[in-house]
UniProtKB/TrEMBL annotation:
Pfam families: HTH_18. Residues 205-303 form the HTH araC/xylS-type domain. Keywords: DNA-binding, Transcription, Transcription regulation. InterPro entries: Homeodomain-like_sf, HTH_AraC, HTH_AraC-typ_CS, Tscrpt_reg_AraC-type_HTH. This is Urease operon transcriptional activator.
């Protein structure tokens, strides 16, 4: 398990770029803390968000999330927005939280097939998040829900006051903090076609491409076979004929994704790569990569990073 650094909270470079871009798009000139590592001082981060909230109000915090749609391609954002629906998005977000070792987490309660209560609260009985921190996280999850293709997305207080609907932010008028919000969305079904020149001989290679496109998904033999319209037994037979296995196919795809990012010397940090590539945690990533490739992720980046 990665060691938590006292006084610091893991904040991905992607999140800090989001904050900087979101403020710039609004014409708000407040310096955003940066770091050569994936850690940013918790105090500095809170100070920026608190200053924005105090000077510009909650809409300025919520509007930061809008920048997610305008950012250059971000691997972490892509991993999240590949989600099929809100529960899948939340599962991916929870996995990201485990990698970040943050002090706060988002809990989800399904109220109906299309309504969910999201609560941003402290982890392990620690200090609660500030109003600005909760607005940023819950606002970002709302925008990510829209980016997954969901329609009719709304974010309201428990009392029904509107934070977001019809693609616009509103001031719900609360000054007592943001304990939880109710997110409503109609999930848009996604159809991913798996094509190839020869449906018999290309099946395994094409499905590996599907795994590479979304390694964070909790794949099963049945769900992968369904992507190609094949029966699970057909996929198992094709894998056996190719002297492969489902678990090896998944591992190879995750290693391919990780290696691609490791070849970028200025690419994501190792913990982010572990999440992007779909591993359970950074230790699992390091063990699997070393066993498969024959060298550690750090050594691989040092040797091949450009």
């Amino acid at each position: 398990m990665a060691q938590r650094i006292e006084g610091q909270d893991f904040a991905s470079a992607a999140m800090m770029r989001l904050v900087a871009m979101g403020l710039a798009r609004q014409g708000i000139s407040i310096p955003v803390p940066t770091s050569p590592t994936a850690h940013v001082s918790l105090g500095d981060k809170r100070a920026v968000l608190s200053a924005v909230l105090a000077c510009h109000g909650p809409l300025a915090i919520l509007s930061i999330a809008d920048a997610a749609c305008a950012m250059a391609p971000e691997p972490v954002v892509q991993a999240l927005t590949n989600a099929r629906d809100i529960p899948d998005l939340m599962e991916r977000w929870h996995r990201l939280e485990r990698f970040s070792h943050g002090r706060h987490r988002v809990e989800i309660e399904q109220l109906s097939p299309q309504r969910f209560r999201l609560t941003h609260r402290a982890r392990d009985h620690g200090p609660p998040p500030s109003m600005a921190e909760s607005l940023l996280v819950l606002g970002l999850l709302t925008i990510l829900t829209e980016m997954t293709g969901s329609t009719d997305v709304t974010m309201k207080t428990d009392a029904g006051a509107v934070w977001r609907n019809e693609g616009k932010w509103h001031d719900a008028g609360t000054s007592q903090g943001v304990g939880s919000v109710v997110l409503t969305a109609a999930s848009a079904s996604r159809t991913v076609e798996v094509r190839g020149n020869n449906p018999e001989t290309d099946l395994v290679s094409r499905l590996r491409g599907r795994l590479v496109a979304d390694p964070v998904r909790r794949w099963t033999v049945a769900s992968l076979a369904a992507e190609a319209g094949a029966a699970p037994r057909t996929l198992q037979r094709r894998l056996t004929e190719g002297l492969a296995s489902f678990s090896r196919l998944v591992t190879d795809a995750r290693i391919e994704v990780a290696a691609t990012h490791l070849c970028k010397s200025n690419g994501p940090a190792l913990a982010e790569i572990a999440f992007i590539a779909g591993f359970a945690d950074q230790a699992h990533f390091a063990r699997t990569f070393s066993r498969t490739v024959g060298t550690t992720p750090s050594s691989y980046r040092a040797d091949f990073g450009q």
